[in-house]
Structure formats: C-alpha cells, structure tokens
C-alpha cells in the first residue's frame, strides 16, 4: 500500500515540478524517488498485516501479498530503466517533460493497483488509471498524425473493452452480491452458481484478453505500437503487458480458480490462436515496432499458458517469464530507438551493417533477440522452459507442443534483424550513440545473462 | 566425510576469494586492459594469483586434515526432483590442488612477465592466463560434478585460446583445434557419466553419489559404465592413449602456457577427478584394471617416442604424457594418494623443466631444436643448474622429489603385479635416458648454432630466474612430503589426504605390504638403475659426442618411433577421412535432397500464411471492433454449444 501511496505522490510531484521550474532535475529526481520506492516496496516482503491508512483498514480493497510485491518490484525496475531512456528521448521536448513524466508515473500507479487489487472495483480502477494515461501518451506527439491515430484507435477500442469489463463485473456482482475477491471465491465454492455469473466471468476474461492483446482482441496492438512514440511503445510492451498479465493471473489464482473448468476451452483456443497469429504474422513485417508488436502478441500467448496453469502455483514461472521478456524488450528498445533516430527509419533495414558501425550495440541486440527467441543460455530460454514444463505438468501437452513449434517459427523474424546487422552492407548514416541508451542496454543484457546463472533464486520467491 | 563437515564461517571468505581474485583480474585486464599501461596488466594478473595463493595458504592453515568445508553458494538448477547447487567443497584434496595451482600459477605469471615482455598480445596473454586459473580453481573447488564440469570445459577453452595464442600461424591454429576436438571426445564421456549419475542416483553431489554408489553391488554394470565414462573424460584431458596426440601439438602455445596448463595443472585434472571419485572407482575393479593398463601402456609408449624427439619442448611433452601414464597406473593400482603425490612433485619439476626450456629458447631467440644447441651450461648458469636438478628429479635420482613419488608407485606395483613393476621400471629408465639426452645435448659440449646466435646468448631477467630457483628448491626437497615408512617417519602427504581416500580403502583388494628390506632393495634398484642410465647417456652424448641423425636418415624401428608410431596418420586415415567422405555423401543425399526440400517447403507455407494473415490488419478501426465481436461470438458459441 505504501508503494502505491508514494508512487502517487511522486506523480503529483512531477506535475508540480512544472510550477516550481525544476524541469532539469526532474528525471534524476524521479529515478531517485522510484529507487527509494523500490526499497520501500521490497521491505514489505513477507509482512502479512493488512494494508491500512491510519486506522482505516484497506484490506477489502488492496492486498500487498508477495505476488503483488514481486511484480511491483519488477514494474518499478522497468519504469526506472524507461525513465533513464526518457532523459535523452525527451531532451528536445523540455516544455512538456513534466506532463509526460507525471502521466507515465500514473501508468505505473495503475499497474501497482492491478498487481495488488483485492476487489473488482480496484481492478477496474487500476486498469482505467493505466489505460487512460496510456491513451494520452500514445497520442502525445500532437503534430504527428500517426501518433494521433494511435492514441485515438487505442482509446476507441479500449473503451469497448472497458465496457465488457464493467458489464462482466456487474454480472458477477449481480450473481454473487460482492466485489471482493474472497467473497466471490466463497460464492463459487458454495456451489450454486447462477448462469449469469459465468457470462460475467467470460466477459471479464474477454476484457482482460484485450488488455494482454490476445487473439482475436489483438488488432489494436500493431497499429498502436507502430504509431506511438517509440519510448511509449517500449513502455506499453513491457510494463503494461506485465501488468495486464499479472492482473489476469491474479484474477484466476486469487479468485476465479473455481470457474477455470468453464473458461478452459476458451483459453486453450485463444492461447493457440494467439501464439500462431502472433508468430506467423510477424514473419512478413518489415517495421521493427510492428515485429515487436506481433512478437509481444506471441509472448502473450506463451504467458497465457502460465494462466492456464494458475491452479498449481505457476506464479514463479509467469514472473520469471515476464521478467525475462520485459528486460530483454526494454534493452532492445533502448538500442532500437538509437538506431531509429540515427537512420530516420523504423524498418529492419535501419539495422543494416550495424555490426560494423557499432559492434557492441549489435552484440547486445543479438543477445536480446536470442533471449526473446528462447535460445539458451539467455533468460528467455529458461522462462519458456519453466512455462512449458508448468503447462505439461497440468496436462496441456498438445498445446505445449504447438507452442514449441511456433517458437521455432519465431526464430525467423528475430534472426532477420541479426542477419541485417551482421551480413548486410552498412549504409552511410552514422550511428549516433548516446550513453544513457547504452547503459540501459548493458544493464538489461547483464540481467538477461545473469538470470540464467541463478534461476532458482527467482523461482523460489513466489513458491 | 559428512560427519567431519564443519561450517567455519571464518574460512568462507578466503575460500570465495581464492576463486574470485583471478576472475577479477581477468575482468580488469579483459575489459580495461586496452587503457592500462602494458607493464601494469601483467602485474595485476600476477598479484591476483598471489592473493589467491595467500588465501589458499589461509585455508590450509585453517582446516585440519580431517575436516572439510562445504559452502553452498546458491541453489542453481532445480528440476522436478533434482536440485543442483553451486557450491564449493574445501577438503585436503582440494587444498592440495589449490596450493599447486595458485602457487605454481603465481610463479609462472611472474615468469611470463619477463618471457612475454616483447609480445604484442601481452595483455591478452595475461587475461587468458587469469581466466584459466579461475576455471582451474572452479574445477578443483566445486562440490559436485557439474561445477567441476564447468571448470573442466573452461580450462579446455583457455587451453584452446592459449595454444592458438599466436593465431596468425595456421599450424598453431590447427594444433589448438586438434586439442579442442580431442578434448571434446573425452568430454562426451564425462557428460554421459554425469547423465548416468543424475538418472540413477538423482544427484551429482560428490557425497551423495559416493553414498548411493555404496548401496550398489561392487563391480555392477552401472558402476562400471559410470566410471568408464568418467575415465574417458580423464583420458581426453590428461592425454592418455588413445587420446594423447593433442598434447605434443599443444606445445605450439607460449612456453609458460606449456608449463602451467600442459604440464603442471590442467592435464592433471583427470587424475584429480578420479581421486575425487575414488569410492566410485574402487567399487569398480574392472575399470581400475582398465585404467592400470591404459596408464602403463601410455607411460611406456610415450617414453619410447620421447627417445627420438629433437624439439626441446616435444621431448618434455612426451615425457609429460608418460608421467601422466604413471600417475594413472598408480590410480589403477588403487594407490590414490600416491598418484596425487606424483601429481604434486611432477608439477614442481615439470613446470621447472618447461620454464627452463623457455629460458633456453629465450636465450637463443626462439630456437627449439636441440641439435642446434649445445654447451649452453657456460652461458646461462641459473637455467642450467635448475634444469639439471629438475632432470635428476624426474629421472628418479636418489633423494630428489621424483625419486620418492615414483618409488612409491613402483612399490605398489611390486606388491600387486611383478610384470607391471618391470614395465614401469623400464619406462622410468627410458625417461632417465631421454631426459639426460636432452640435458647433455643442450648444455654440454660445444655450441652448434650460428655465430650470430652465440653472440646474443644471455641469461634471462630476474622475473624469469626467480621462479626457476623457487621451483628448483621445491623439486629437490618436495619428496620430503612423502618419505616412505622405511625411514621411520610419518608419510606426511598420505596422512594429510587420508580423510579423502579412506572411504575407498575397504573396497580395495589388500595386498601383502612389501617388507622394509624389500622396499629398500627396490629403492636402491631404482636409484642405481637411474644413475647407470644417466652415465650411459653421458657416455653416448658427451664422451662420444653423438648427435641425433636427421629424420630422413632414420630407418626401421627408429623411423617408426621418430614418426611417433604414425598415430596421427592412422587417425587421419581411420577417423578423419571416412568422416569427410561420409559427410560429403550426406551433404548431397540427405541435406540437399531431403532436408532442404522439406525445410523450404515448410518455410514457404508459413511465410504465405503470414502474408495472408497480414491482410486482416486493415487499419480500419471499425473492422477491428467488428472482428473482435465476431471472435467473441464464435468463442461464446463454442463454449455454449460444443
């Protein structure tokens, strides 16, 4: 709870910074603040006393359990890395820096609520805080029509999803008479479940699937990712995706586990469709942001396997997967943004001959690509390994085989970039290197390799 | 051993530092070496190893010979029911290896500062050297086979990098590749052995494996399989028949590397591994017999080849192979601590011999052919005296280190099998002969090189001679660690190692100990024999001034020996050529015809699907919402009606 409070205060501080004329110091201050919040967040580890403000107990609303703390920690780390990138990304746009930063901190606030919600109303609030901030950020480049289109599309389709979400929650409330997760669990356990309740669960599920960009609710994501400013795309494909997944996982592990048998066929179809559509469509893309959008869809499919396994405590596996995916993606975006800016292009050919121009960056990009493709010895491989073995343990053998075959297809489009870097002739546009991007990429690469050295540490924390 | 395990927190820090310091040295030189002055990088590397050595000494002082220290650093890999930790086990055996590796390692670093000073790859050299020490320490410190395997592979990698250190020379690169490939053959055995242990014992911890193995019937098929596979690994790394040909070629690397990696430390890893698993091996007598045969055969075979080599380093290389054979023979006899004892004394004198050879090569500006040397004793006194003492030690001259350690192995052989004893004695006399052939041709008589070279002969700098002197002292007195019982003193070395090897004693067949009188007779025989052989060599190469003939002039058996029994050529015809032919065949038939077609067809289908699916992404929001709703309807219908 304190994590959320402090983060909200940080967001407010960002808004005030405009008035106080602190723009230059803002980014270091936010990074420092988030680091402090990270420490505060981790200090709550293992403490089970219900959240409260003063004497008012908040346990009906939020519950900071280890699941929430672990994901909050991950989200804060991702945000810090993104804010480091923001320092250079927004250096020519100082007028709006405090607006951008405060909105991004509010996205984090939304994510924190989505990790720790203990009440359907909080879930809705979290999703809305996150989404509305994102609609703005996606369209934040006001004079760029593509950015406008991106924000508008995201908003329109997100509004539909919110409608389903609310309708689903309403039906659940109508049947069970409560918003609280524990109350709903009790209602399911009692045995007399109204048909309306199932419809509510299904609608709720659809809305969540929209948020994680699963097929057939994925159409928004390639267009939005492509049009949004690259930094925001990085934010969406990492923090937001992790938040949506954690929320979906929490929904089934903390509350709707009893209805799993009902939604299982739907989830299996959606998972399979998501994996294949994501991977196969990515093959023929030439825009790197779109490739990553489809890759994100495919990864959502893999993580849905984790949700399917949510009844056997697969939280560690999902967490490991999410961490490996998010860290590699942040690193990748750090270097991709640099390449985009140097080449004035976001297509694969912008990477041509990068190995000659900047061998370090090329090597780092290769690490991230290979990790995302799930090739050992990088973290992505172990993530896939854990998720797949969890799914097999739960009996989804065919689906897992299908996922494995698809992850082989995925190698094609990840390698496409690596091949462009190493075996295409370099163009004459110099690579403009900025240290902040390199630092973030190196940290992410170290983590991508480091996680595989001590996989058990991460795997044990949510056991 | 479990009973004696103590968790002495004071010793954890030095134990971790031992392995970390070389890693830190490696990282500093590897990442920032470019920006540091050349002279500094060498000293950073050397000091890292010195620090490591000091920590090893602390561990030696802190742990008595009956205790061991197990440090689980972190849980590493957890599968369903298998849990592998990354941890260290510090016991007398580890400490022995630590002292040898870091002690000799430091001296060789120091030596390299002088030896490599003109090389353009100076910093790279020290970076690799530190990395090597790090992996070697992992190898000996790990508390399970996987950690050992990481070290095992790591030292193999460093060996590859250092053999091919002068990578502009194509034949050096080929030597490096050969070493790597041959080691991989052995590594496969090691890996399979680990898989067997994981599968049947569910663990690869040393202690668990040893305990589990003791529940099986001795000499059961499983135990024989595992130990044989492990021994295949040891054969590759320790250059035993038939996987030995890489080691002589490995002399392509800089001489300090030959001394450190290909004589004193890495090649003894196979022996360390078997002593570490001594309980496992003693439960499989069949494997032990096999090891004995391989060891004895290698010992004689390599010694015979050594007789007719003319490259100073090649002679030493074959001598190393031969001595390693002797150590394996000791292990095959079940004399684990004797084998380790010879590892230690051999490390002293063989490192010294190589460094001495390096000093000779340094003095002659790269000349390695002993036919072009001669009379060097007058010019490079320190090198000469230390080299001579080392040669006496390896030949088994009475009361030098090699005398005691060899004698111990020979006594064990005598106890168990007289034939083995005879063969090993012959092998050790041959050793004495070719070593002194080398000494006499190099340091005695008149200089046979050009006048130009003669003018430039000079003694090496202090950084090079100091390690020679220190190692020389060790090579001379090292034998005191293991005085035989005849002298009515405790065998310091085997007592120190007893907690490691005692577990296997009950499974070994016990032979009548030779009486003291016999033992003295054996020692005298070996000692006097060595002296006679040396005198014979003196007569031939100094008195008569005999010179090795050119390879082309040799005939009959001599020609065969000089060509190393044509082993390389045989391997070329038996393994390499058929594989090349087969792979050509597969390329045309399987790869081009079947696989390519299948792969391309699949890829085409997938790519076409991708292009088609892409068309759904119209960019029209209305269509997206429509598709979403349709999707929802379909899913709901499936859920409700199917």
What does this molecule look like?
- The complex is a heterodimer of chains A (463) and B (642).
- Chain A is an all-alpha fold.
- Chain A has one domain.
- Helix content of chain A is 77%, strand content 1%.
- In chain A, helix 1 packs antiparallel against helix 2, helix 11 packs parallel to helix 17 and helix 13 crosses helix 19.
- The longest helix of chain A has 32 residues.
- Chain A is globular.
- The mean pLDDT of chain A is 90.
- Chain B has 642 residues and is mostly helical.
- Among the domains of chain B are: 226 residues, no CATH class; 74 residues.
- In chain B, strands 1-2-3 form a three-stranded mixed β-sheet.
- In chain B, helix 1 runs antiparallel to helix 2 and helix 15 packs antiparallel against helix 20.
- At the A-B interface, helix 6, helix 8, helix 9, helix 11 and helix 19 of A face strand 2, helix 24 and helix 25 of B.
Write out key terms for the chains shown:
heterodimer, A: 463 residues, mainly alpha, 77% helix, 1% strand, globular, B: 642 residues
Short structural summary:
Chain A has helices spanning 2-20, 23-43, 66-89, 97-116, 120-138, 145-176, 181-190, 195-211, 220-227, 230-254, 260-283, 288-308, 315-343, 354-357, 359-373, 379-393, 397-423, 435-453, 455-461, and strands at residues 52-53, 56-57.
Strand content of chain A: under 5%
Quaternary state of this entry equals heterodimer
Number of helices of chain B: 25
Overall pLDDT of chain A: 90
Main beta sheet of chain A: 2 strands, antiparallel
Count the beta strands of chain A. 2
Based on CA atoms alone, the radius of gyration of chain B comes out at 28 Å
Give the overall shape of chain A. globular
Percent of residues in helices of chain A comes to over 70%
Percentage beta strand of chain B: under 5%
Taking strands numbered 1, 2, ... along the chain, how are they ordered across the largest sheet of chain B? 1-2-3
Structural topology:
The complex is a heterodimer of chains A (463) and B (642).
Chain A (H helix, E strand, L loop, with lengths): L1 H19 L2 H21 L8 E2 L2 E2 L8 H24 L7 H20 L3 H19 L6 H32 L4 H10 L4 H17 L8 H8 L2 H25 L5 H24 L4 H21 L6 H29 L10 H4 L1 H15 L5 H15 L3 H27 L11 H19 L1 H7 L2
Antiparallel strand pairs in A: 1-2
Helix pairs in contact in A: 1-2, 1-4, 2-3, 3-4, 3-10, 3-13, 4-5, 4-10, 5-6, 5-10, 6-8, 6-9, 8-10, 9-10, 9-12, 10-12, 10-13, 11-12, 11-17, 12-13, 12-16, 12-17, 13-15, 13-16, 13-18, 13-19, 15-17, 15-18, 16-17
Chain B lengths: L4 E2 L2 H24 L5 H25 L5 E11 L4 E8 L1 H24 L6 H20 L3 H19 L6 H32 L4 H9 L6 H17 L8 H4 L5 H10 L4 H8 L1 H5 L2 H22 L5 H21 L3 H28 L17 H15 L5 H16 L1 H26 L7 H6 L5 H16 L14 H14 L10 H28 L12 H7 L4 H48 L6 H21 L1
Parallel strand pairs in B: 1-2
Antiparallel strand pairs in B: 2-3
Helix pairs in contact in B: 1-2, 1-4, 2-3, 2-4, 3-4, 3-10, 3-15, 3-20, 4-5, 5-6, 5-10, 6-8, 8-11, 8-13, 10-15, 11-15, 13-14, 13-18, 14-15, 14-17, 14-18, 15-16, 15-17, 15-20, 15-21, 16-18, 16-20, 17-18, 17-22, 18-22
């Amino acid at each position: 709870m304190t994590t959320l409070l402090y983060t909200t205060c940080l967001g407010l501080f960002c808004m005030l910074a405009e008035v106080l004329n602190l723009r230059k110091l803002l980014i270091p201050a936010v990074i420092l603040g988030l680091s402090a919040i990270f420490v505060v967040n981790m200090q709550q580890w293992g403490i089970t006393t219900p959240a409260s403000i003063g004497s008012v107990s908040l346990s009906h609303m939020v519950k900071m359990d280890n699941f929430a703390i672990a994901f909050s920690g991950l989200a804060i780390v991702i945000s810090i890395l993104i804010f480091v990138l923001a320092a250079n990304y927004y250096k020519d746009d100082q007028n709006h820096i405090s607006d951008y930063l405060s909105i991004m901190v509010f996205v984090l606030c939304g994510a924190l609520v989505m990790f720790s919600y203990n009440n359907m109303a909080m879930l809705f609030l979290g999703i809305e805080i996150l989404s509305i901030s994102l609609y703005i950020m996606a369209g934040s480049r006001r004079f760029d029509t593509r950015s406008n289109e991106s924000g508008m599309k995201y908003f329109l389709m997100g509004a539909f999803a919110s409608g389903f979400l609310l309708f689903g929650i309403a039906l659940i409330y109508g049947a069970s008479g409560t918003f609280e997760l524990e109350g709903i669990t009790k209602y399911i356990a009692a045995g007399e479940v109204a048909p309306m309740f199932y419809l509510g669960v299904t609608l709720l599920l659809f809305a969540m699937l929209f948020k994680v960009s699963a097929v057939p609710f994925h159409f928004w994501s390639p267009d939005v990712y492509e049009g949004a400013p690259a930094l925001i795309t990085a934010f969406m494909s990492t923090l937001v995706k992790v938040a949506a997944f954690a929320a979906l996982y929490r929904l089934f592990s903390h509350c709707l586990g009893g209805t799993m048998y009902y939604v299982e066929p739907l989830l299996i179809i959606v998972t399979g469709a998501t994996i294949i559509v994501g991977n196969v469509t990515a093959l023929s893309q030439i825009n790197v942001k779109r490739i990553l959008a489809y890759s994100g869809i495919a990864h959502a499919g893999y993580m849905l396997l984790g949700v399917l396994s949510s009844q056997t405590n697969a939280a560690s596996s999902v967490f490991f997967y999410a961490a490996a995916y998010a860290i590699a993606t942040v690193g990748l975006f750090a270097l991709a943004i640099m390449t985009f800016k140097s080449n004035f292009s976001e297509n694969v050919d912008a990477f041509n001959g990068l190995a000659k121009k900047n061998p370090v960056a090329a090597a780092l990009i290769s690490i991230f690509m290979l990790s995302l493709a799930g090739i050992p010895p990088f973290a992505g491989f172990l993530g896939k390994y854990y998720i797949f073995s969890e799914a097999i343990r739960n009996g989804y053998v065919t689906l897992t085989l299908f996922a494995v075959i698809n992850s082989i297809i995925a190698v094609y489009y990840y390698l496409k970039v690596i091949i462009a870097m190493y075996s295409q002739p370099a163009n004459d546009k110099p690579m403009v290197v900025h240290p902040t991007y390199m630092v973030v990429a190196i940290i992410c690469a170290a983590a991508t390799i480091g996680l595989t050295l001590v996989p058990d540490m991460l795997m044990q924390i949510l056991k | 051993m479990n009973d004696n395990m103590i968790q002495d927190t004071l010793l954890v820090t030095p134990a971790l530092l031992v392995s970390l310091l070389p890693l830190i040295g490696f990282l500093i030189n590897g990442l920032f070496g470019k920006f540091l002055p050349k002279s500094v990088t060498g000293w950073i590397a050397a000091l890292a190893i010195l620090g490591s050595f000091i920590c090893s000494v602390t561990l030696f002082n802190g742990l008595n010979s009956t205790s061991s220290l197990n440090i689980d650093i972190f849980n590493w890999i957890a599968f369903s029911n298998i849990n592998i930790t990354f941890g260290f086990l510090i016991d007398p055996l580890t400490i022995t290896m630590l002292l040898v590796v870091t002690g000799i390692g430091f001296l060789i670093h120091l030596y390299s500062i002088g030896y490599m000073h003109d090389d353009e790859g100076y910093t790279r050299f020290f970076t690799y050297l530190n990395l090597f020490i790090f992996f070697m320490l992992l190898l000996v410190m790990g508390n399970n086979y996987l950690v050992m395997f990481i070290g095992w592979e790591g030292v193999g990698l460093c060996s590859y990098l250092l053999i091919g250190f002068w990578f502009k020379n194509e034949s050096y690169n080929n030597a490096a590749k050969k070493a790597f490939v041959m080691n991989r053959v052995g590594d496969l055995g090691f890996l399979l052995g680990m898989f067997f242990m994981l599968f049947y014992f569910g663990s690869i911890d040393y202690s668990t494996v040893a305990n589990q193995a003791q529940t099986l019937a001795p000499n059961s098929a499983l135990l024989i399989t595992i130990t044989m596979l492990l021994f295949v690994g040891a054969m590759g790394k320790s250059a035993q028949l038939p996987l030995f040909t890489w080691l002589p070629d490995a002399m392509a690397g800089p001489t300090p590397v030959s001394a450190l990696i290909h004589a004193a430390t890495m090649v003894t890893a196979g022996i360390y591994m078997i002593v570490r698993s001594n309980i496992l091996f003693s439960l499989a007598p069949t494997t032990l017999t096999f090891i004995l045969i391989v060891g004895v055969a290698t010992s004689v075979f390599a010694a015979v080849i050594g007789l007719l080599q003319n490259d100073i380093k090649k002679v030493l290389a074959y001598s190393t192979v031969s001595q390693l054979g002797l150590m394996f023979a000791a292990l095959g006899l079940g004399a684990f601590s004797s084998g380790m004892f010879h590892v230690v004394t051999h490390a002293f004198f063989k490192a010294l011999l190589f460094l001495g050879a390096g000093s000779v090569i340094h003095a002659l500006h790269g000349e390695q052919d002993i036919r072009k040397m001669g009379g060097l004793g007058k010019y490079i006194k320190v090198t000469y005296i230390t080299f001579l003492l080392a040669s006496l030690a390896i030949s088994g001259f009475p009361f030098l280190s090699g005398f005691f350690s060899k004698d111990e192995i020979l006594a064990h052989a005598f106890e168990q099998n007289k034939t083995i004893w005879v063969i090993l004695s012959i092998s050790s006399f041959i050793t004495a002969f070719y070593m002194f052939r080398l000494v006499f041709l190099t340091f005695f008589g008149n200089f046979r090189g050009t006048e130009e070279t003669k003018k430039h002969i000079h003694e090496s700098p202090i950084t090079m001679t100091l390690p020679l002197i220190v190692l020389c002292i060790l090579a001379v007195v090292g034998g005191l660690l293991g005085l035989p019982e005849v002298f009515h003193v405790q065998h310091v070395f085997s007592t120190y190692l007893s907690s490691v090897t005692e577990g296997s004693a009950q499974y070994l067949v016990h032979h009548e100990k030779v009486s003291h009188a016999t033992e003295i007779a054996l020692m005298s025989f070996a000692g006097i024999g060595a002296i006679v052989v040396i005198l014979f060599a003196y007569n031939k190469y100094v008195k008569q001034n005999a010179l090795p003939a050119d390879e082309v002039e040799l005939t009959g058996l001599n020609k065969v020996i000089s060509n190393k029994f044509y082993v390389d050529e045989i391997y070329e015809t038996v393994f390499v050529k058929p594989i090349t032919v087969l792979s050509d065949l597969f390329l045309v038939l399987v790869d081009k015809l079947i696989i390519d077609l299948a792969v391309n067809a699949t890829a085409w289908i997938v790519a076409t699907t991708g292009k088609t699916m892409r068309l759904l992404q119209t960019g029209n929001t209305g269509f997206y919402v429509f598709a979403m709703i349709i999707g929802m309807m379909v899913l709901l219908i499936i859920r409700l009606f199917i």
